[in-house]
Amino acid sequence: MKTLPLTRNLYIISGCNGAGKTTASYTVLPEMLNCQEFVNADNIAAGISPFNPASVALRAGRIMLNRIDELMREGADFAFETTLSTKSYVSLIKKARSLGYKITLVYFWLNSPQEAIARVATRVTKGGHDIPEDVIKRRYYGGLNNLFKLYKPNCDLWMVVNNTTEQPELIARGEYDFSELIFNPDIWNIIKRQAV
After folding, report:
1. Which of 86, 87, 79 lies closest to 39 in space, CA to CA?
2. Using CA atoms, how far apart are residues 19 and 119, in angstroms rounded to an integer?
3. Entry's SUPFAM superfamilies (predicted)?
4. Hey, which of 72, 111, 160, 174 would disulfide with 180, CB 3.0 to 4.6 Å?
């Protein structure tokens, strides 16, 4: 398949559960990146079944993938959210690149699975959706592992942001040609150790 010039944008908003992906997306995407399309399976599930979104999670995931395909066919700029805990988006990224999409990945990192569990618990007290602790832990490490092994090498631009503290901190960024800028080597080394 012939690859088109990169004239469209696909933003992947990623990180473990509770990392602040959705919250950041509502500001960063429309206001800073002028991206008006944000596809989020959690929001879709809540729209289908507000009182029991977990019961329609698979259906919401299918709707999300269909919407992504539709947006790619239209050539629209868009973003989607993921924990990166599965390999399923690698083929989607490759397809998007062949259609002329520049792939930008932002990974919101928290310093531990326990921090992620605590944030999800806080979200639940405010009416948000719950996720079992074992799933949060599995996704925490799986997402970091896949970030390094699968997703970074397939993105045109990637950034890792420490979202543990009140003020987010850019830890590292890189480009498709494997060039990296490390802004906080101590935290970056912790993240790399967690990804193993």
Report:
1. 79
2. 8
3. P-loop containing nucleoside triphosphate hydrolases
4. 174
Cβ-proximal residues to 41 (8 Å cutoff; 6+ apart), any chain? 57, 60, 61, 63, 64, 81
- The pTM is what? 0.92
Of the segments 40-44, 52-56, 148-152, 178-182, which one has the largest average pLDDT value? 148-152
Q: For residues 104 and 176, what is the distance between their CA atoms, to the nearest angstrom?
A: 10
Q: Tokens 């480009």 label which residue?
A: 175
Q: What is the total residue count of the chain? A: 196
Q: DSSP characters for the chain?
A: -PPPPS-EEEEEEEESTTSSHHHHHHHIIIIIS----EE-HHHHHHHH-TT-GGGGHHHHHHHHHHHHHHHHHHT--EEEEE---SSTHHHHHHHHHHTTEEEEEEEEE-S-HHHHHHHHHHHHHTT-----HHHHHHHHHHHHHHIIIIIGGG-SEEEEEE-SSSS-EEEEEEETT--EEES-HHHHHHHHHHT-
Domain formed by 8-36+78-194, architecture: 3-Layer(aba) Sandwich (3.40)
For residue 178, give the amino acid letter: F
- Segment 53-110, tens digit of pLDDT: 888 999 999 999 999 999 999 999 999 999 999 999 999 999 999 999 999 999 999 9
